[in-house]
Amino acid sequence: MLTNNHGLVIFLSLCLFGCGGGGASTNSLPTGGAPATVSINGVAIDGNLYLAKAFLDLNGNGVYDAGEPTATTGIDGTFTLQATQDQINSHSVVVTAIAGTTIDQDTPNTPLAAGFTMMAPAGNPYVVSPLTTQVAAKMAEGLSLEAAKSAVQTQLQLTSVDVMLNYVALQGTVSVYFDAHKVAASVAEVLKAIETQVSTNTTVVNRLSSLTAGVTKNVVPS
Q1: What distance separates the 2 farthest-apart alpha carbons in the chain?
Q2: Which of 102, 137, 152, 193 is least surrounded by Cβ atoms within 10 Å, i.e. has the fewest?
Q3: pLDDT tens digits, residue range 78-89?
Q4: Cβ atoms within 10 Å of 68's Cβ, excluding its own
């Protein structure tokens, strides 16, 4: 009887191994050798942005191009993109708020009069906001992610705020995130102004540089 039990254990172990059990990663190569895709769930906020365009910017030009993973944001600003883990780690999620279409739920049922573009640093797809865009702008100047976050916190006097988090979701329970929401709305106004001044050929670096200058001039507390 002991021998039979031992044989059963061996059989089950071989079956588990052969069937891909034991926590196989979604990044394993499927039949054909193409990298597996995973779903990433994010949110686009100034307030929650409804009917905005979210996409993974695979060529780094800041505008949507055919073939890039894309989705339209839901009523609560959420979106889901399908991409490989390497793509998620290496490229930024960009959100385009579209004039006349996108609704900022801070003012429900009223489409935006002016559009704007936001982004999150590569590998951080879960929240895209004016504050994450400012972090990306600091990184474009050569700072690391952590250094850029710290710089934005200091510049905007949000030292108790994690500028990569969803301040809309947190503002009801943590008062400093209510303040972050107000500051982010001011940054969004800078982004709207930039959108009227640049062409589709303007590079991401130049856009981010314009954001840094605009925030310094118009948003930084005196």
Answers
A1: 82
A2: 193
A3: 999 999 999 999
A4: 18
Residues 128-153 as b/e (b if ≥16 CB within 10 A, e otherwise) read bbbbbbbbbbbbbeebebeebbbbbb
For residues 100-127, average pLDDT? 96
Task: Single out the residue of 112, 90, 113, 88 nearest to residue 102, CA to CA.
Answer: 112
- Tokens 């686009």 locate to 44
Tell me whether residue 103 is exposed, middle or buried, using C-beta atoms within 10 angstroms of its C-beta: 0 to 12, 13 to 18, 19 or more: buried
Q: Are 121 and 92 in contact, with CB atoms under 8 Å apart?
A: yes
Cα distances from 185 to residues 86, 113, 167, in angstroms, run 32, 14, 11
d(CA 57, CA 117): 12
Q: Can you tell me whether residue 131 is helix, strand or coil?
A: helix
